[in-house]
Every structure is written in C-alpha cells, then in structure tokens.
Write a sequence for this structure.
C-alpha cells in the first residue's frame, strides 16, 4: 500500500513497529536479590514491563524503578526499543526514592532524601524549603547550567541518585 492510498494527511504522525511477532526474554534482578525472567516486546513501555514484573513478584511497581547499565533509571513512558533493550538483557530494580544534593553558591550542601523521578522541580523546592527555611519563591534550581522549570520532573532533566543540583 502507498501513503496516498491510506489517505494519510500531511503532518500526520506514524508509529513504526519493527515486527509485532518479536518477543524478547529479559531478566529483572529484584530488590531482594532474586531474578525473574519475563517475556516482553520491544515496543512495550517501561511501565508495562514493571506491571508484568509486579504481577510475578507482588512488589508494587510504585516502590521501584528499572535500570540498565550503571544505575540509569528508565523512564516509565519510554519503550524498550528506545533504550535498545535486547534479548537476554538484564534490568535491575532500584528503590523508587533516592537522595540528591543541593549546593548553594557558597558551597553548602543539603541532602534531599526521598525524591523520585516523577517529582516535579517544584516538589524539590518544597523539600529544600522544609530543610533550610529558604522560601520556595526565593529558590532557582539549576542543573547542568540550565535553570530547572517548576512543572518538569526530575526524569525530564535525567537527574539521578547522588546528583547535585544548584540553588
């Protein structure tokens, strides 16, 4: 079939599926040190994989994130193909909440516990306020030379466990 025969309009978005019959067998290392093997498809999102693993382990998927390689947390909305996950790859569960640091201009560091990839920058501002009494409206957080927008989440900026942001 041609694009014209499908009456696809100019500016339309197409979704490419490589092969709907392809299945991947991947392993997931659990928080308690066990391993589960799951059968997935490359177009599955990370959240779909987490739901499959949750059904096999009874571990609430809200309590952990998936990672690949050196602790890189996978974003729930992205597909396995986005991360180039292949047959027999090993993913690892990480606790969903973690610690980041906030550094002031004078070098003082405040540790912020219990942040999640889904936390907005505004939520991080509020956690920083709770620990320092610096009003949220007097804070401007930066990471990698970029001012962080209140409505974006930590995942948007790829802020991981142990990273330092600046105020």
């Amino acid at each position: 079939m041609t694009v014209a025969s499908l009456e696809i309009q100019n500016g339309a978005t197409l979704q490419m599926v490589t092969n709907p019959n392809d299945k991947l067998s991947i392993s997931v290392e659990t928080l308690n040190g066990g391993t589960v093997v799951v059968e997935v498809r490359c177009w599955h999102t990370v959240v779909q994989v987490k739901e499959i693993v949750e059904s096999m382990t009874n571990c609430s998927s809200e309590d952990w994130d998936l990672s690949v390689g050196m602790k890189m947390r996978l974003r729930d909305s992205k597909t396995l193909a986005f991360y180039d996950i292949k047959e027999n790859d090993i993913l690892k569960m990480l606790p969903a909440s973690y610690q980041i640091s906030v550094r002031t201009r004078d070098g003082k560091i405040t540790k912020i516990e219990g942040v999640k990839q889904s936390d907005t920058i505004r939520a991080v501002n509020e956690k920083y306020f709770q620990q320092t009494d610096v009003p949220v409206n007097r804070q401007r957080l930066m990471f990698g030379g970029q001012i962080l927008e209140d409505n974006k989440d930590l995942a948007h900026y790829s802020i991981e466990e142990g990273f330092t942001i600046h105020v």
Observations:
- The two ends are 55 Å apart (CA to CA).
- Residues 24-95 form a domain with the Ubiquitin-like (UB roll) fold (CATH 3.10.20.90).
